[in-house]
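Notebook B, p. 112. Complex prediction, attempt 2.
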Amino acid sequence: MATIQNPTPDTNLTDGMHIVVDALKKNGIETMYGVVGIPITDLARHAQEAGIRFIGCRHEQSAGYAAQAAGFLTKKPGILLTVSAPGFLNGLTSLANATTNGFPMIQISGSSDRAIIDLQQGDYEGLDQMSIAKPFAKASYRINKPEDIATGIARAIRAAISGRPGGVYLDLTTALLASVVDKDAADKTLFAPVDPSPALIPSPESIDRAMKLIAGAKKPLIILGKGAAYAQADDTIKEFIEKTNIPYIPMSMAKGLLPDNHPQSAASARGFVLENADVVVLMGARLNWLLSHGKGKHWNPNVQFVQLDIDGMEFDSNRPIAAPVAGDIVSSINAFVAGLATTPIKASDDWVKAVNDAKIPNDEKMKVKLNNTDLPMDYFSALNAMKKVLDNYKDMYIINEGANTLDDGRNVIDMYKPRHRLDCGTWGVMGVGMGFAIGAAVTSGESVVAIEGDSAFGFDGMEIETICRFKLPVTTVIFNNGGIYNDSHVDLSGRGDPSPTTLMADAHYDKMIEAFGGVPYFVQTPEELSKALEEGIASKKPTLINVVINRTCGTESGHIGNLNPKVLSNK
Ligand code: ADP
Ligand code: MG
């Protein structure tokens, strides 16, 4: 397909940008998130004209979080569009987050002149983007020729959603975007890959080995991870858990796969079940830091693991896996349910009772915390005011970030539907909230409540304008205790500076949304918070609730203070 230099007026022509849009359309891409500028402004326009929704954000990082939220919710890659060098780099944290969390996403970026970049002659926004993206992406490609556009996009889609999903980088040079070619020839190159996310059927031996191990367990436990949520095997997972009566705990983004008030949920006896379980079945969950690597005082030292994962490289990464099951969760869990006919599994009444008994004192302790009536509110009383409302909106999408806001929010706010909770995930990254809220609202067309710490909100607060511009039904709730962690720290500067963890406790974040025509609330009591939340949700209008909570509540680094090095000083 020759690039046409001097086209005559009657030739039927197209260009690189249009071919990119046509190829995305051919692959069923319906939405793109991004920030426009040189050289991709017209690409976004062409996409919009072709019926692809373009959600223009205020920062590439948030746009990338929105795209990966869409990817997690739909099993289709979310698309982030960025400009060259600085915009590309701004998007990279989100790309890395997608890769780390296993969310399918493609960052498509314009890039400057290869010849000038390669000879380091100083181009406008010049950067060797494809190479830089590599360590942060599952795959990183560049398309150099217009006849390769359809292949490049097909490869990016396959890389994003086959096997363990992840972030993919796709570099489009300015020369490629501007190339002019014959339209009929270009149209002939278009295709959608067949079965881009193929099933991975587990071997019968691996299923048999795993089921025998579980059947022989005295104290079996299932841990559901976000890989299981992603797989969309909801009914079969529920069937296996209910038929076997095995207690389970959900990792935070697997909450709602079964409703959190399910009698077999051992979430409030987490410590007890980890210390005691003799066989743990990991379903789409990794034994990473979030599970203390399966080692140490939190775990029964003799525990044996069954692990269901699509990625065979995951097994034995932290602890030896006695029964690895390499397969996609849909296929693996189907095989498990079918296998119950020949290998029946039933958790013993003794074990189930012991787990239920262990929940009682913890549930009681939680009740006391939730019903604290002190003012200003603390995390628990504020979350309880929200819970009372949210328990009536069981299909609400919940976004949650912050330190204590996340840790306590995860424990207090119950989920009832799969894939309705999005949070900091595997990496503990802050600044995901507004992007996730945008991605969830755009993808589902439904209401979203974002529960944000004041510091977490600060990373991407400008996206409030995006939420208002697109009139998204997002209620953002800011737990304002005036600080990173909290505002209980003293000034050590000797010059009256705020401490490193201090933010403005008297800040009126609510005023921010007023600037963009959204609905503000400033609340100080649980009653005011419940009422504002109820009104915000009912209105379906962009709403921001600034919740005053006690400056001293919350602990440094939330539940993971042990990871925070404190050697000689204890200030
Ligand atoms: P969590 O943080 O909830 O514990 P992780 O992100 O650590 O979850 O683990 C998710 C795991 O699920 C990853 O190891 C990933 O390879 C796996 N996974 C993702 N999608 C699928 C799928 N469709 N089938 C099987 N495993 C999957
Ligand atoms: Mg705070």
